[in-house]
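Notes from hallway chat w/ T.B., transcribed later so I don't forget. T.B. wanted the structure written out for a chain they're using in a teaching module, and asked if we could keep both sequence and structure tokens in one place. Agreed to drop them here.
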Amino acid sequence: METTNSAFHQRLSTNLITLSILGAGLYIGQDLLLPIFFAILLGTLLLPASRYLLRKKVPESLSILIPLVLFFIVFSCLLYFLSYQVVHFFDDLPEIKQKINSLFTSIQRWFKQETKVTITKQNQFIKDFTENIKKGNSDFLGNTVATLTNVISYMVLLPIYTFLLMYYRSTIKQFLISTFKNGSEEKVTEVIQESTNVAQRFVLGLCLETGLVFALNTAGFLIIGIKYAVFLALLAALLNLIPYAGMLIANLLCMLVTLVSTDNQIEAIWVGVVLLIVQIFDNNIGMPLIVGSKVKINALVTIIGVLVGGALCGIPGMFLAIPGLAVMKVIFDRVPEMKAWGLLLSANSKKMTDHQSQL
């Protein structure tokens, strides 16, 4: 009995130490690792198109390059559309600023009536708050420069990493198989294949789900008749890619922009209603049907994984958390010593109940 407990504690300690080392390595090396992880996801998305071109006797380099170039053309068009809409929004900035000032004055008067705090004291508080923000302006500028640098590095490194990973995918696969020459080569091949399929289905499902959310948002906003309807619909759909926090941010931004760009404040409430209805539909029908069937991870582990990913790597970590957990589950399910961890990640409660009855 003592030997069994010792072996259990040893395995648990090894697993926890391994997870801690992996987390620390991810945090320290995120600038190097995150572009590679995104390149892997993009590569799995483009792999079917590349294989189709290979079957049509297209040279391997071109079979990778053509889908990659087409993807970045579509991505560039999307960025151009967003940039155009942002520029159009800034063209209306003087009018929007005037409406913000009018709205702010109304809020100050209401606050004075409710709290008896004079407008002079409110203005003084705002002035002090603004000065405090200015003191931390250097940090803000530094973070902004760092963010822009990361975006530029992603734009440069992502296509290079994606091309090279797809070009040398057979070599990487053989390396992984050769590393486990202990009779488990078949399991390693199965894990690689299943992990590729999971990542591919997840990215494809996420693209379809984003398109569906964009279409529903656009339809709702056009029915309401708000300004910047298509732009706000696209912004909300893209922010929805950030798990859990994204739609909350989208609601606040879309309602605020509508509030300051229209004379009818009721439209801002209707924007919130449209986004709420779309979110309910997406959470209960769209996401489970399109993405949930691809990545079967339970909600508790998903939330914890997203939070841990955000703490380690920010928003990119939140986005990568779900496919990362799905790949980990594939590995855990096929390694006997790690099957308990696979059960912990599983969304199939029946499977866990059956396992408990066996115990």
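Follow-up for T.B.: The CA atoms of residues 47 and 150 lie 26 Å apart. Might be a good example for the class.
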